Amino acid sequence: MADGDVTGLTDDEIEALTDEERDSLNDGAIDSGTDEEPEEEVDVQAQFLDWVVEHFSIVEVVGSNKRFYWCAQWFEHKEVVARLVALWKAHLAAELGDDLGAVSSWWINDWDRHAAVLFDPANGPFRFCDRTRGHLSETKETGPAVSLTIPPAEWQLPA
Predict the structure, then answer these.
(1) pLDDT 10s digit of each residue in the chain, 159 long?
(2) Other CB atoms within 10 Å distance of the CB of residue 4
(3) Quick one: how many helices (H) and strands (E) in the chain?
(4) CA-CA 20 to 30 A from 148: which of 25, 38, 39, 137?
(5) Cα–Cα distance between 85 and 96 in angstroms, integer?
(6) R_g over Cα of the chain
(7) CB neighbours (10 Å) of residue 40?
(8) What's the gap between Cα 49 and its chain centre?
(9) Mapped to the 3 state alphabet, what secondary structure does the chain carry?
(10) pLDDT at 82
(11) What DSSP state is assigned to residue 67?
């Protein structure tokens, strides 16, 4: 074994290796020689849910409270989840960016626009849900709201 070699190979064996094989061995020696703990995996779902709880703890419902257009099973609504994930990512970008007005812009340009759709009593994703009767209490339909057909192979995006 060569001095300082942790691979267990002789100098002749190391000499016979290709550059790629030597690089791979070096990377392995560097990786295995560290005492550092592997990085913890980030629980993105937990971070997202924490943000949702934190954000909705400050959201106020204004206007008529005759019928509250929110569903306790909001996570069963794919559109709602997609909108909230988009809002969360945009909010993170606004908070982490250098623009001091980014969070204010997020409220006006992102939250206000999505909230208008989320809470829309006539056309919003919760229109068939009721605060007291529950998720989709006013319909048994759970299929996609929009019918979709994939265009034929010869179809092209307009220029």
Answers:
(1) 445 454 556 666 666 666 666 666 665 544 545 556 666 777 899 999 999 999 988 887 666 555 557 888 889 889 999 999 999 999 999 999 999 999 999 999 999 999 999 988 888 898 888 766 667 656 655 555 565 677 788 878 777
(2) 6
(3) 6, 0
(4) 137
(5) 16
(6) 27
(7) 6
(8) 10
(9) CCCCCCCCCCHHHHHHCCHHHHHHHHHHHHHHCCCCCCCCCCCHHHHHHHHHHHHHCCCCCCCCCCCCCCCCCHHHCHHHHHHHHHHHHHHHHHHHCCCCCHHHHHHHHHHHHHHHHHCCCCCCCCCCCECCCECCCCCCCCCCCCCCCCCCCCCCCCC
(10) 94
(11) S
pLDDT at residue 52, as a whole number = 92
Give the Å distances, CA to CA, from 23 to 10, 17, 28, 78.
Answer: 16, 10, 9, 46
Contact 7, 29 (CB under 8 A): yes
Total residues found in the chain within this entry: 159
CA distance readout (Å), 134 to 73, 77, 94, 114, 128: 8, 13, 34, 22, 9
List of residues 6+ apart from 153 with CB closer than 8 A: none
Both tokens of 114, joined, read 């999505």
Number of other residues whose CB lies within 10 A of the CB of residue 107 = 12
